[in-house]
Amino acid sequence: MLEAPNRRQARFITFEGGEGVGKSTQVKRLLANLANVSVDAVRTREPGGTPKAEAIRSFILQGRSEAWGAGAEAVLFAAARYDHVTRLIAPNLAKGTWVISDRFCDSTRAYQGLTGGVDSKLIDALEDLALDGHTPDLTIVLDMDPETAFKRVAERAIEDGLALTGDRFEKEELDWHKRLRDSFLDIARNNTDRCVVLSANQAEESLEREIWNTVQSRFPELQTGIPA
Q: Which residues form the Thymidylate kinase-like domain (predicted)?
């Protein structure tokens, strides 16, 4: 007899990309699509996901760690990630719940590593410690030119009547964000077994369908009902 859909092997999916490409929106949409096929899933984010990790997130994004340099920030992110993995990601996967994360380890490689200049050996060591073997099954990299992304963010802020303010990373110069985009694309090219790059320069509904098709293609059990 076939297992119930929510007893399929749990999957770990991460979303990556620069600022303003729509990761949070698409994470929500993917969770809704998974729920429609009776897959239990939890939404999380990095840095954050647990109380301790959220405290570290606040410290970094407020700019309080900026003077310490990219190396120190990489260590802080690793500390937050270790708590996130051990207290949220690993337990959920173990009980059969899918985990969908807005950012994960690739962001550290892009922000502090390729863009911030932190030595790759340090990044590797911190990643080995923090992940404890929990590498994503699929990473969706949302790609968009930074100028277009920032214009979209500004337009939405105006529509919502909000002041356009940036956090520690959103305030970086445009050239920095272009290098960040290149960093994510480099990571994807070097990890084709795990990463899929999708253009975020399209309607939300269209991108949602493309993401769902990608997830179904990677995990055929979602189409067949056969447990993994």
A: 15-211
